[in-house]
Amino acid sequence: MSQQASFKARAHILKLLGDQLIGNDRLAIFELVKNAYDANATEVNVLLDLDAIPPKIRIKDNGFGMDFDTITNKWMELGTDSKRGKNRTRTPKPFERLPLGEKGVGRLAVHKLGTKMKLVTKASRNPEYSIDIDWPSLIENSKFIGDANVLVTTNTSSVAFKEGTGTVLEVTGLHRTDWDRREVRALAKLINSLVSPFETVSDFKVILSVPGREPWLQDLPDVEDILNSAIWRFDFEITNADGKSKLSWDYEFTPPIQFKSIRKNTLRKANDSLELLPPPFYSDDDLNEIQKNDHLLLSPDMLSGIGPIKGKCYFYYLRKEVLGAGGNYQYIKKYLDDQTGIRVYRDGIRVFNYGEPGDDWLGLNPRRINKPTEILGTNSIIAGISINLEDSLDPKGTEGLQEKTNREGFDENETYRRFKWIVSSAFEKFFILHRKDREQIDKYLGDIREVSKPSPDATFEKIIDEVNASIKKHGLEKEIGKKVEYIDSEYRRMREVALNTVKGLNLAVIFHEVEREILALNRAIKKGESPDTLVRISEHLVSLLEGFQPLLRRNELKTFEISKVINNAISPLERRLKYHKIIHSAPVLTGEDRDFTITAPYGLVLASLQNLVENAMYWARLKTEKEKAGKAPAIGIFTLPDWFEEGPAIVVADNGKGFTLTPEEAVKPFITERPGGAGLGLYFVNLVMENIGGRLLFMTPEELELPAVYDGAAVVLLFKSRKQ
Fold it and tell me: What is the pTM of this model?
């Protein structure tokens, strides 16, 4: 025999929900302010009057208020779904806000504040209603929650709203009347965080008043103060015009005024081209469609279903010496802890959950672990990315940027992946621009990368053992176990080869980089980073070691003709050269240039030449895409047996943009102007040439009297002559 039974709730649950769901008084007020935001209010006045008799807290807004039906069927219904799921709709014009409240219990925050409340509300074309509740009395006189009846009074004359609409909620019988200065300031910071720094501030304004304690609120940084404390600002706009995609950007570096030896830097450019990160950056199988485009630059078709993109970005250096230079370090740091992230807005309305705490939709944090001095993480960025509804929303619902039904971001379709790729590439533009200014700060702080050293106790052997233990503890053998095993064995082998066979080769920077990244991997595992993040870190380590394998093989000296190494450098690239329509020439292979013989480690010379050819291919293609003048990308590999007194040389020339880095900068590790580049290619080549007694030179094709088609860079591998 079965019988139906139903749940019942005691009236006492009202107090439990209010007391236990809300952490403290500040959060209770914050919840009530969020209700005003959801009601389309433009202004909320929060009064904390501790000297009144009795002391009170009052929250008054000018939102759309409530009619009788809303009061009884939504406000008085606990756990209402009026702001959840399919009911989570935007508020009426002009603001069309997406509601912040969704659990349907925020109104019980008054329990955290006091024992009595008075609610007065007025909706358009409706009378003003009042509700007075003595919570202890209501709960005491009601056995079950359904017995807890309150009176909704229709006011015959206005109590709070002689004109306009809105809601006022006043709480008395306060549980706490001993608010101190620190707590009041913390309340001010919390309620102001609801206002987006990227929207017009007049859209939603919160005014806090604490009569008799006004000095407590003085000197508080507001949103503008926080943004002004950023030392980098980067605004950009990406549009299609005249059949081209154009990037306009504005970069500003403003160091603290106390850092007198560091120069301010302002750069801007209109109608630039956006250089794209390589598509494999996301290592996503679904990027096949994007990869088919094979663009180095953003093209007009890539903005289809997205439309114009604007970015307003503020970047912070979180070192205390920098962030605290203007004072209020703790306040600014706490504000950044709560507010940093890269948010997305469509028609000025925020698209959740981009930019929420813990959200890293661009994948910057794993990249920062790999490149801590080149990439800034999400906790150092306050940014807003703006798009418009008309261009980014497909009415058929099959393309464009479609919001998920649960309103937690966009559907991850091909259009969204393009959007993410484009925005990531815009941020890469900033990271490249900010490098030199970042170096200024690091040098000022005495924190130059080349002289940084791992802890004496942080030996590779010790850390790799810790990593293996952490992998086993967290059950990550499948995800990264094999990769770490490879990293361990390859690193040890390379150290042995470097110590015993490659005399005079300064690889301290590379070994230090591997050791640093093993430490980073260990920290990431201990912090519980996602498996995807751990895979990215370990894959970067694998690629770093593989990139230097030729340098650390047992490269015995051989005597060989230079034509052989040139042929073997070009042959594997023939298909790519043809696919990208790159004109290439190596006159020594056709007998037009004179061959010569050298004695050197063959594998190192081959790897160096391949590096230079790869670079030349990229920069020649990039310039051709930018100029679109019908000029094909071109590279040439020339032999100069007698040009230099020191000895014979190979020259790799192209018709790209030429070098903008100085020779000293070009051979430093981890410095690159190529989006997504590791910055190790020319460092590698320079090490090789130094080790075999030669030189790496940066010249122009004109200086070497090469054919006029080559008007970009000319990189020279200069070998010492046998006589020397």
Answer: 0.67
